[in-house]
Amino acid sequence: MPFSNELIVAIGTASAGRLAKAARHWSGLWGYPGLFDEILIRCNYRLTRTVARHHRVKKVVEVGQPFFSLRSRRAEVLCHELAHACVDRMAAAAKAKTHGREWASLMELAGYQPAATITLRNRPPKDVAPIVRPAPRVYAHRCPICQLVRTARRPMRSWACAFCVASGEEGRLVMERWK
Q1: 116, 136, 139, 178: most buried by Cβ count inside 10 Å?
Q2: Mind listing the pLDDT tens digit for each residue in 36-65?
Q3: Taking the model in full, what pTM does it have?
């Protein structure tokens, strides 16, 4: 299935199955039956305002945090992005506009009103925490002599302060975890 495992867990296997069935139906309507199997659909938790986007070169559709709050319109969002993918693969893709006639006709064939943006009426309340990945650990490596700081995602025991080593000092850095 072209859905990433993370997305299947997030929306549920039943919902993913319904979306996959609909996507295969749309790609058949559009005359490109293998389209859905060529595209990877995955989560991108950094997208906090964008519902979804299509990457032409990577052949990926990424869904953002607002996608998970759209219970009834997930199919429309997926159709919107797959229509972009289909237009990109057609012969006239070089001349086609992002939300041009070709894209609009595919959306109408699928039974949706062509719209460049989606209005989020049922946004989650502000007190609900968004779905985010945990921040990576960051380690600070500080020189106790000159207070130079270097950061890394893991402890770097071999690092030394080049300025202090050049002046004849030991240059050993002290590590501390930032986040």
Answers
A1: 139
A2: 888 899 998 888 888 999 988 888 999 988
A3: 0.65
